[in-house]
Predict the 3D structure of the following.
Amino acid sequence: MRTKVLVVDDEPAIRRLLRGSLAAAGYAVIEAPDARAALASLAIDKPELVLLDLGLPDRDGLELVAPVKASGAALLVVSARDATEEKVSALDLGADDYVTKPFDTEEVQARIRVALRARSRATREEGAVAFRDVVVDLASRRVTRGGVDVHLSPKEYGFLAELCRHPGRVILHTQLLRAVWGEGHDHDVEYLRVAARGVRKKLEDVDVEASAIRNEPGVGYRLMV
Amino acid sequence: MSPARPDPDALLRAAARDSTGRLKVFLGAAPGVGKTYEMLSDAAARRAGGLDVVVGVVETHGRSETQAQLAGFEIMPRARIAHRGQPLEEMDLDAILARHPALVLVDEFAHTNAPGSRHDKRWQDVEELLAAGIDVWTTLNIQHVESLNDVVASFTHVRVRETVPDRLLDNAEIEVVDLPPDELIARLKAGKVYVPHEAARALDHFFSKSNLSALRELALRRAAQAIDAQMLDDLRASATGGSFAVGERLLVAVGANPVAGEVVRAGKRLADALRAPWTVVHVETTSERAPDTARHLADAMHLASMLGGQVLSLPGQSVVEGLALAAADTRATMLVLGRPQPRRLPWQRRLSVRPLARRLPELSIHLVQISTRRAPSARQWKPGRPAIPGWLPSLLTTALVTVLGLAIFSAGDNITNVGLLYLLPVLLAATRYGLATGIVTGVIGSLAYNFFFIPPTGTFTIADPQNVITVGVLLLVAAVASQLAGRLRAQAILAAQSARQSAALAGFARLLTGAQEAAKVGQLLCEQAAHLLETNAVLLLPRQGELEIVAMSKPIRLEVLDNAAAQWSFANQTPAGRGAGTLTASEWLFTPLAAGETALGVFGVARTDAAVPVRADQLPLLTSLTDQASLALERIRLEREAAAVRTLEERDRLRAALLSSVGHDLRTPLTAVLGLLRDLSPAEPDQREIVALARGEAERLRRFVANLLDMVRVEAGAIDLHIEPVDLAEAAAAAVRDLRGTLGSQEVRFGIDQDLPLVLVDPRLFHHCLINLVENAARHGGREGPIFVSAKRLGDGLELSVCDEGPGIPVGMEQRVFEVFHRIEGSDRKGGTGLGLAIVRGFAEAMGLKVTAANRVEGRGARFTIRFPADRLREVGEAA
C-alpha cells in the first residue's frame, strides 16, 4: 500500500506541482485547499504525512500543527515567508521539518523521506547512528571514529546524542539547550556553538560546509546522515 | 541577585563629580597661613606639566613672595563695574567661560561681588565655572564656612558676614594649608600677614595662640570630614563596603524666634557628623504671629536650604502633634531642638521636652545649647495704628451695662449680679479685639462698677474687701478670655488661609488635567500665581532654542535684564532674579520648570512695587504651583510623543503586513513556475532549449524578487533584529550550502579558525549578507578561480573577508559599488540585480557592522570585508 501524503495549500499550481512530483515518487497524494478540508481529510484518509502551507485562507496554518500531530502523521511545514520566528514556532509546536518557498521539489522529497523514517522509528533511545566513519552508540554512550574510541566531553556527547536521536531533523536551539543543559539556558546559544566546534574538531576533518553537523541559521542544528 | 547593591544616589553624585569641573579648596585656619602662595606653587607645577592653567583672580595683598609666584601665569583681566561712580574690579566670569581653560585659580572663595555683578557671591561664580566643566582651585579660611560661622564667632568674638555653603566643600578636594600657631604669630609680628578689616579691631584677641589652635583643629577636622563623606560616597557607589548602618535621619525643629538660625546651624553640624539627611521643620501654631519673629523664621528656613537641608512647614494644633507628624513623614530617627530658654514673660509659651519624649518614644532627642548673647529683639511700636483697637464699641457697651446696672440696682438687687454683668463687655472686647482692648475694658468696667455700685458709691474707694476680688476677677477674665479668643481667632485665620490654598491648589490641579496645550497650562499657572501670591506672573517655554513668553497674568514686557535672568535660570536649572542671589537686578524672580533632568521652561513672578516677589514662607506654595505645572507640561509632551509613536507603529505594522503579503504573493507563483518547469522535460530538443531558457529566467526572477524584498526592508528601516552569537565558520558554510545550486562546482575556500570568538549578529540578516557577498564574488570573480572566505582578528576586533580572483573594482568605485542599482560597467549581462551589495551594506549597518570594498593587495581580484568591533564579539572557551 502506498504512503498517503496530504498536501494542504490554497494555490492550485503548488498542489499540481507537488502532486506530480510526489506521485512520480510513488506516494498517494491527497489535496486540501484550506484548513477545513485538511481537518476532514485527516479524519477520513488518515495520511501518514502532511505537507502544510502556513498561509491558508481560512485559518492560521500554525493552528493545524496540533491536530496533525495528534493524528500521528508526520508534518512538514511549507512557508512562503522567510521568517525565522514562524519556522521556530512551527517546529516548537511539533512539526518535523520545514521548507521555504520557493522550494526545490527534490529537496521536499528528501525532507519527506527523513520525516517518514523518523516517524516509523519514533525517537531513538538506543541503537547506533552512523555518519561517515563515525558511529554513535546511544545505549553504551560510546563514540567511535574509524573503529577507534573518541572521547567527547559530557556536553559535547549530549549535544551529539540529541541530534542522533532524530537524525536528519532540525533540532531547535532551545530543544538542544534544554536537553543537554537543562532549564534556564534557553538563550545560551554560544554553548551550542562551542559544543558543535568541539564535536567537529574531534570527529571530522572536512570543511564546515561539508560537516554532518549542519547549522540552520537562527533555527537549530541537524545531523545529516 | 547581588547582595551588595550600589546606592543609586551615591552613583549619581560620583558621576556628577566626573562630568563637571572639580573644585579644590586650599583651606586655612586663619589669614596669613599662606593659602594663596600654596595654591600658586601647586598650580605652577601643574602648568609646568602642560596643564592649561589661568589665573581668574588672585589677591597678592602686595606681598612680594606671592607676587613672584604669579610670574609666568596667564592672568585674566578683571571686569570693571561702575558702582555709584566708583569703578570696581571683579573677576571676569564670562571671559573665563569663553577662554575655557582646564583649570582656573580663583582666590578668596567667600568674597562678595560688587553690586551689579551677575552673582552676589564669588562662590556662585565658581559654581558656574564648575558647571561649565572647568576645574577650579580656590582659597578659604575656616571661619567663612557657613556651618562653622557660629562656632568660630563664639570663641574669637569676630563674626564674618561672608560665608560659603557647606555643600560646596562636600564635593571638593580639600587641602589644608597648615602653619603652626607660633609661626603664624611670628609672621604676624614681622608684618607679613595682611589683616582683613573685619578682624582688625579684635586683632590681638583673634591671633591668640589658643584661638589659632582651635581654628586649626576646626580646619583639619572639616577637611577630614569632607574626605570621609567622599570616601563614603565612593564606597556606596561601588557597594564594596560590608554593611552600612541604617542611617540616622534628623528632624530639626525651629520656632519663630531669634535662635532659630543657631539651631539650624547646629543641626547641620550634627547631620554632617552623623552623615545623615536632615529636615528643618517649623510647626505653625497660633502663638507666633508677630512680624519680627516671622522674619527670624524665614531667615532660618532660608539658611537651612542654603546649607542643603530639606525644609518643611506645617500647620498644627500643637507643636508636639506637628512634630510627630513631621517625624513620621520624614521617618526621622533623631529630633534636634534648641534648649528651652528661660521665659522672658511669665505667660509666654515655650516647648517643653517631656511631652515630646512621651509622644515620640522612638526618637532620640538632641538639645542644642544656645548661646545667651543674642541681638536684642527688635520690638517697637508701629506708628499709625491705633494702640487699642475697638475702644469705642467697648466703651459704649460698658456704658450700656452701667445704665442697665443702675436700673437694676435701683430696683434693690444684689450688686454682685451687676458685677457679673460687667463680664459681658470684657468678654466681647477680648474676643473681638484682643488682649489690650479686653484689659482696658476690664479696667474701665471695674472702675465704673466701683464708682457707681460699690459702696461708698460715687467714689473709687472700696470698703468691702470682697469687692476687690470682683474687680480682680474681672481683670483676670479679660486676660484669659482674650488669650483664648485670640488663639482661636488666629487659628481660624491660619486654617482658613491654609484651606484656601489647598482648595486653590486642588482646583488648579483639576484644571490642569483638562489642559491639552502648553499655552493653556501657562495661562492657568499665571492666573493662579497672580491670585495666590498677588504678583504678576509670566511663563516662558523654549521654542526653537529661544525662550518665548507663552502666558502672562497681564500684559507685561520683559527687559533685556529680565530675559537674561530667565535664560540663565533655564540654562542652569536654578532660580534667578530678585531674591534668588543671581542676576538680582531683574525685578522678576524666575524659577525653572523641569521634569526629571529635562528643562521644560521658566516661570517668573514680579511685584509691581519692586519688592522681593515671593516671601520665604510663600516659597513652598510657589514650588507646588510650578511642580504641578511641570507635571502637566510633561504630561502634554508625553502624550504628544505617544501619539507620534502610535502613528509610527501603525505605519510600521502596515508596512510589515504589506511586505509579508507581497512576499507571499510573489514567491508562491514563482515556486510553482520553477517546480513545474523542472518537471517538464520534452523530448523535442528545440523545446527542451525553450524550457531551459524559461527556467533560467524564472530563476533570475526568483533571485530578483528575493533581493527586492530585502531591499525594501532596508529602505523602509523595517528591520527587526534578533541578535545571537554566531560561529563565522558555520554561517559561511550555511551561505555557501544555500548557494550550491548557483555556484555549481565553483570552489570555495574557507580560512576561518576554529578558535575565533563568536560574532553577535542577527543570524538571518547575516546569512543574507554572506549569500550576497559570495554570490557577488562568484559573478564578478570569474568562474575558474576559487572564492576565499576568511576571517582573522584585527586589533581587538575581527574581520571577515570574501575575495575573488576577478578583474577587481575600478579605482575610485570602492564606495559606489554599494549603491542601489550600481553595476560595474560592462557587467550588465552577468545577471545581477544591482541590489546585492546595497543589501549587504544595509543589513550590516542595521547590525552595527561596517562593510568595505577594496582590491586585493596580494594578487588580482576584489575583497569585501565586514568588520566586527570588539563589542560585537563574544569570546568563548573550550567546550565544557
Q: What stands out?
A: Chain B touches chain A through 47 residues (CB under 8 Å). Chain B has five domains: 8-238, 250-341+351-368, 391-490, 515-642, 719-874. Residues 719-874 of chain B form a domain with the Heat Shock Protein 90 fold (CATH 3.30.565.10). The mean pLDDT of chain B is 78.
